[in-house]
Amino acid sequence: MTDPIADFLTRIRNAQMAKHKVVEIPASNIKKSMTKILFDQGYILNYKFEDTGVQGVIKIALKYNGETKQPVIKNLQRISTPGLRLYKGSDDLPRVLNGLGIAIISTSAGLMTDKVARAKNVGGEVLCYVY
């Protein structure tokens, strides 16, 4: 697999389109950090890390709106790809939907949202947009 982050986002996107309650994703440290950010921001219901086998698995419980049964995550968009990396300074960090969405940034201080990176005055690689 050449782009594990794109695979992570695609698995979540496909599971939501098929109205699944839980999706299983092969684990890695960056995927675990992204899962924690999605949970903290309220985009997923719950998650669990299982250390089975060599790699382990992340189980993510997807979140849907109560009455309409529409997924909470409207769009997951990969920004920086292995073929074209996109780095931004702390002054140039993107605002997703005028602050309604989040951008996940990989910084020297770890993975964080664009708002936290702006507050800490650090820049980094823009991994994806979530809204």
Quaternary organisation of the protein chains: single chain
Beta content: 25-35%
Largest sheet: 5 strands, antiparallel
Number of helices: 3
Q: Regions with pLDDT < 50 over 5+ consecutive residues?
A: none
- Characterize the overall form: globular
Termini separation: 26 Å
Beta strand count: 8
Radius of gyration: 15 Å
Element order: H for helix, E for strand: HEHEEEEEEHE
Description of the molecule:
The protein has 131 residues and is an alpha+beta fold. It contains three helices and eight strands. The protein has helices at residues 4-17, 29-40, 114-120; strands at 22-26, 44-50, 57-62, 76-78, 87-88, 102-107, 110-113, 124-130. The strands form two sheets. Strands 4, 5, 6, 7 and 8 form a five-stranded antiparallel β-sheet that branches. Strands 1-3-2 form a three-stranded antiparallel β-sheet, covered by helices on one side. Strand 2 (44-50) and strand 3 (57-62) form a beta hairpin. The longest helix is centred in the N-terminal third of the chain and has 14 residues, at 4-17. It starts with a helix and ends with a strand.
